[in-house]
Amino acid sequence: AAKNAGPSARIAYHPGLRETGRQQAMLIADLREAIGGGQLLLEYQPIAVLADGLIVGFEALVRWQHPRLGRLGPDRFVHLAESEGLIGDLGAWVLSQGVAGAVTLNTAAGRPVFVDINVSPVQFGPRLTQDLHHALTGHAVDPAMVVLEVTETMLGSDRQWLAGELGKLKATGARVAVDDFGTGYSSLARLRDLPVDIIKIDRMFVSGLTPGAPAQMIAGILQIAASLDMDVVAEGIEQTTERDLLAELGCRLGQGYLYSRPIGLAQAQAMILAGPLIR
Ligand code: C2E
Ligand code: MG
Ligand code: MG
Ligand code: MG
Asked: Which of 46, 176, 242, 247 could form a disulfide with 209 if both were Cys (CB 3.0 to 4.6 A apart)?
């Protein structure tokens, strides 16, 4: 019992909470300790040129190695960090760790390799710019090799405010990608005049792509991206047929289980040294 007498154990016996609420409360208490306590880690998923499999970047994805529950994915705890006021601390950790990962991977590759870092909408504000600046300072990495992924839902925010916030991030030299594009009902026109460098097409539009099936959404995204001079990454590629069709449509970059699941930093280093991901 002494071994489990952490904050979760105390909350676990609170009589007023329902089971699910209790479990959530335990997780929240644990998460507070996890962020500063070395329980978070980043995995990296390669982003490749569809035409030849050359790895040009990685997306950093956070995981929580929970002492009792095992490894938890971000869908289990990022929303809790957002609602409990912990996303600033979590985000700062991800930023500093992600930039360090970018340094490692660029050094290993001996050529430019970008690292995407996911940013929560709740993180926006003065601290985000400050933390980004802090993470980039003192690191021998081209800031353009750090790409901040913001969710498409953010495009619905006040336009002037958003342009200002993204402008502040861009002022550090980092680049900006719009994640999960196509899911948020925001019109493609919303992208115009925003300092966005990369569009990530959501997996929803990629999975099940077959020859002859309509691909208007992807074609539309590619067209506007080309006209705005933005690069495009297709997410969630699992099949060679999907990869081939995306390439035919004119999509340059992709990521997904076809190439690799998210892996540790050492594995990512080895992967980039092993050459293109021929699939
Ligand atoms: P996302 O940014 O859209 O990341 C892509 C997700 O799709 C990842 O899930 C990845 O493992 C998964 N994925 C990649 N390729 C495939 C595929 O071929 N098939 C399928 N079925 N899935 C694939 P993951 O790691 O569970 O992350 C889920 C979401 O959590 C991310 O979606 C992102 O929104 C959020 N997230 C991850 N890391 C962070 C972080 O450091 N900070 C914040 N704020 N959010 C994060
Ligand atoms: Mg992402
Ligand atoms: Mg995504
Ligand atoms: Mg997604």
From this structure: 242
